[in-house]
Amino acid sequence: MRNFLSVGDVPNLDKLVESALRYKADPFLDRGLGKDKTIGMLFLNPSMRTRLSTQLAAKHLGMESIVFNVGAEGWALEFEDEAIMSGSTVEHVKDAAPILGKYFDVLGIRTFPTLQNKEEDYSELYIKQFIKYSNIPVLSLESATLHPLQSLTDIITMQEIVKLKKLKKPKVVLTWAPHVKALPQCVANSFAQWVNFWGGADFVITHPEDYELSKQFTQGAKVILDQEAALDGADFVYVKNWSTFTDYGKIYCNDPQWKLTNKKLGWTNDAAVMHCLPVRRNVELSDEILDGPNSVVTQQAANRVWAAQAVLSEMLKGQGE
Ligand code: CP
Predict the structure, then answer these.
(1) CA proximity to 107, closest of 74, 130, 78, 75
(2) For a substitution probing ligand 1, which of 42, 48, 285 has the most ligand atoms within 8 Å of its CB?
(3) So what's the pLDDT on residue 321?
(4) What residue's CA is closest to ligand 1, atom 4?
(5) How far is the CA of 228 from the centre of ligand 1 (A)?
(6) For 98-114, what is each residue's pLDDT tens digit?
(7) Is the CB of 50 under 6 A from ligand 1?
(8) What are phi and psi of 223, to 5 degrees?
(9) The pTM is what?
(10) Is 48 in the pocket of ligand 1 (CB under 6 A)?
């Protein structure tokens, strides 16, 4: 594996999940794999889980990690080729990325979408420019449209629960939830892409009218606009807000009726409730759910380490070939 940007970079998902679970059982199994290697992690946006879990994963593999919060501490980067840089940007990615390519062995990048220009966001310009100009393997720590480390974590967590509960083919429901801000579609896109690729679930997406996601990621899922019908018999409920895709980056409806409650949980098959975090309590998800027995959000976030470790391990092995 050279780069990790989406499920498309994964040669064998079952093997990657197995590898993550091996690291969970024995974190220092491959302690020498990253010896004398360094990952540079650039954050154009805030993060807690992605940053710390990836640093821990690198440490378990004997790899150094250096974090740079570009968004808060660095020069404002320009990404457009042939830009006339007379505005707010100070350094072109074309100048910065080759230097990072000399400093590091792997480059992790976190960017968010602008939510202003759909074509630009969905072209993944920022992360693609880093790939083009750094000349080293690039690890997505969340991009404009996808969050692959989160999705791998989600698959690992679901597989653990499937095994524990002896489920055959679980029903997985991705449900839209209200929020006060316009949020990216990344987590929802990515979750849909990975669950479809996994193929181990009956997959349903439910959302208010006008909140349909891009078909390039949802193809294979059943879309049911009636939340009650969608939740019926669910084994997993993944709760997430996203802004509109078609009329891009808007909040049309913020109906609190879409919030998951214990009453709605009663329609499911005692479903495990998932969320990528951070979550706005009592807006996106209620205290009663988050503090209740069905929430697996901490297990999910803890699994971020093993997902990152499995991916970094594949990237390091790829460098040795
Ligand atoms: N889920 C997730 O990516 O969390 P952070 O934003 O804290 O990294």
Answers:
(1) 130
(2) 48
(3) 55
(4) 49
(5) 29
(6) 999 999 999 999 999 99
(7) yes
(8) -100, 120
(9) 0.97
(10) yes
